[in-house]
Specification:
The chain is α/β, with parallel strands linked by helices. It contains 5 helices and 8 strands. It has a single domain, classed as Rossmann fold. Strands 3-2-1-4-5-8-7-6 form an 8-stranded mixed beta sheet. A hairpin with a 2-residue loop joins strand 6 and strand 7. The model has no long low-confidence stretch (mean pLDDT 90).
Length: 183
């Protein structure tokens, strides 16, 4: 696993051998960022269920201004911190919140934070898609014209609408599907 493009291109990322941690494959990440290429510069990212931090670090490498990574698992947090150091992205542009996604969203809402992109990639078997997308669709965390990207198993059915979020695209890459939502 590595950073594919940008300032940290080629940097190898550390992962964790754990059943619940399923990093986004390089080819899936590359496809996502090819789709987003013209929209990434000067954006803010919220990476829920960050795992290794690969999505946020890729966004920062390609020109995003800041990323907030949410990850409650201690071992995964240590991996994220190592990956930040490898990519030379520690500090104020890259924040790690050691919280569950719901609590992190509540904290960020209380701080009046808002984001251009939100990446949602919970453990496939934990049933967190509906609650997370409903919270995002009702809450104030999304900037005008924000996109929410949801990585899920291709057989996982997601609704077309969650509050103010409407799915406008869906891309399948092997067993993985990424659904794109906007307001």
């Amino acid at each position: 696993m590595r950073i594919i493009a940008g300032s940290a291109k080629g940097t190898r990322l550390t992962s964790l051998r754990k059943a619940k941690l399923r990093p986004t494959l390089d080819r899936v990440r590359e496809s996502i960022f090819n789709i987003l290429s013209s929209r990434i510069h000067n954006t803010s990212w919220l990476d829920l269920f960050a795992g290794t931090g690969a999505i946020s670090l890729e966004a920062l490498s390609r020109g995003a201004d800041c990323a907030v990574m949410v990850e409650p698992d201690q071992a995964a947090q240590e991996i994220i911190q190592k990956n930040q150091l490898h990519c030379k992205m520690e500090g104020s542009t890259c924040v790690l919140l050691a919280l569950e996604a719901t609590r992190a969203m509540q904290k960020l809402e209380a701080e009046s934070a808002s984001f251009d992109f939100v990446y949602v990639d919970p453990p496939f078997a934990d049933g967190l898609y509906e609650a997370t997308l409903n919270d995002l669709g009702r809450g104030p965390l999304l900037k005008k014209d924000a996109w929410v990207l949801v990585e899920h198993f291709h057989k996982q059915e997601l609704a077309g609408q969650y509050g103010k979020l409407t799915r406008f695209d869906e891309r399948r890459m092997g067993d993985t599907t990424v659904s794109f939502f906007a307001q």
